[in-house]
Amino acid sequence: MKKLLGILLVLTMVLSIFSVNLVIDDFDDNTKNDLERSINSGNASAAEYAAMSLAIMSEYKFEALYNQVEILIYGLDEEALNEPITQEDLEGVYQTEEMEEFINYMRDSGGIQAMNDISNNLEHVMGKYETRVSLSEDVVRQLLLNFGLDQKDVDNIQSQNNYPEYVESDYRDFLAMKILAEAVLMMDANSDTYFSTLGELENLIEDPASSLKPEATKVVEKYQEKWSQTSPNLMEFDTVLQDIADIDGEIQWANLSDLFADEKLFFEYNSEIFVNIKDILGYVLDISDFEETYNEDREYLNLMDIIFSELRDKIDDESEYELKTRIATDFMRGNLSEELSQEDVTTTIYINGEEVYTIISILEGLYETLPYGNFNMNMSLRTWAPMLQELGMEELKVELEVGVDFDAVKDGINLKDLNIKLRPGVVMNALTLISSLGSAPSEQLMTTLNTVIDDIGFLYNEDRDLVVKMGEDDYFGSLRVKGILDIQIIENLIQSLNQPPQSQGTQGN
Question: What stretches in the chain show pLDDT beneath 70?
Fold first, then answer.
């Protein structure tokens, strides 16, 4: 009898440890206390560790992070990609003040320790794909409001026909919580360099005059005073550039080093941030792998479905709101090349020389090269139109490329390396080019055009390709227009510009 009772006791403990489902109707004190007792006993199930993480999450507000995610998701929308970047977009990307307030709030409220607790609790859930926690409508409402959704949006979500009695929070939600907790801990650990670097960059963009060298300030004030008396003429701008170029002694170029002190151009950060980013990317990839391999046929809604349905609705005004399962995974694994392509435009994307089609493939390429490898992304866009044929081109091909050696930039980035510089004389040469359009021989025109290109530090003529490249081999961004500097194309372009517009004619009565 004692042996039988012992076996039953062991089985009970095993079942408790490996139980995969838990129902939570309310995160009241009794529920939290029960979860805490179970965890402290050492016999908690994976579901109880996950539920405790959700309970802790429900006590804090994450609106600042939700706003950041919303900005990033919106930035990947096709319509947004075609819109010009505004000052509001730049302010939205760095959000220094809001994010700093968020970290201070988390510190003051005990949220940093709470995020550490969540991360530790979820270590007991990692790899246990079958774990679920069923959440009541009230619990989901509390979580969504704290995450940053407003009351109206939550009401709309929970009034949908397919909104279930219980939302099934599963492994994907738990990985998302792990990502969130690790991101907060990373920001806290790197807050000194993170916020100071972003603040300096923000100040340089919004108020560059405040960061000028004294010598550069004198040059600016000199011409401001002069031009307050008389209007500037274009020829004077070469003189301005020469005065700027003289500041650091490299008189051939007016560059950022002439304008700003070295400390204003170097942005420092902790090299461990690349290790942290790799870890977080690993969790993102695990979410996708879980959905595709372990749970590919699921039909139930989890928290990630609800949040991404809401985010997607905000960037897609034309579609009717719909709560969809697997929406985040479908978005990450959708054919990005097709989405970016249009009727007359074909888009091809390469990561480290290999053609890819999805956002998840880009993230996989980035994950493989972090923390200290080389990453290269090339996006090629090809288009065709009757006008191109008139210029002698079969197609127009544009390549966007980003490359970075993470080991070379592990301690910081120096804006001096971006090739942002102008040669004094560029204005005169540009005026000569403009005045010779349509009158000078093609060879002479190409010579003048190449002179202007040589006068601009980030422009290059590479085998008839016009290249805009900022940065060096260690880190750079470039745009390449293939074959556009061909002399025959230039001649055809000038001829088309000199042709009078065709009259439409009048229709008879």
Answer: 1-20, 70-96, 295-296, 314-320, 497-509
Q: Are residues 84 and 143 in the same domain?
A: no
**Beta carbons within 10 angstroms of residue 157's beta carbon:** 21
226: containing domain: 137-243
Query: Based on the domain organization, do 389 and 487 belong to the same domain?
Result: yes
SS3 471: strand
Instruction: Identify the burial level of 418 via C-beta atoms within 10 angstroms of its C-beta, where 0-12 means exposed, 13-18 middle and 19 or more buried.
Output: buried
Our count of domains for the chain comes to: 3
* 150, part of any domain: yes
The pLDDT of residue 19: 44
Residues 362 and 494 in one domain: yes
Residues 85, 141 within the same domain: no
Note the residue count of the chain.
509
DSSP 342: B
Residues 308/327, Cβ–Cβ less than 8 Å: yes
Whether 252 maps to a domain, the answer reads no
Parallel, antiparallel, or unpaired for β 421-422 and 459-462? unpaired
pLDDT digits (tens, 9 = 90+) for 103-123: 999 999 999 999 999 999 999
Long-range CB pairs of 61-66 (<8 Å, 24+ gap) are 61/105, 61/146, 61/148, 62/102, 62/146, 62/147, 62/148, 62/180, 63/147, 63/148, 64/95, 64/98, 64/99, 64/101, 64/102, 64/148, 65/102, 65/148, 65/180, 65/183, 65/184, 66/147, 66/148, 66/149
Residue 148 region, left (φ>0) first, then alpha (ψ -120 to 50), else beta?
Answer: left
Residue 50 lies in a domain: yes
Provide the total of helices (H) and of strands (E) in the chain, helices listed first.
Answer: 25, 14
- The answer to whether the CB of 76 falls within 8 A of the CB of 82 is no
pLDDT at res. 295: 65
Pair type for strands 254-255 and 421-422: antiparallel
Does residue 465 sit within a domain?
yes
The verdict on 222 and 144 lying in the same domain is: yes
Strand bridging mode 475-481 / 465-471:
antiparallel
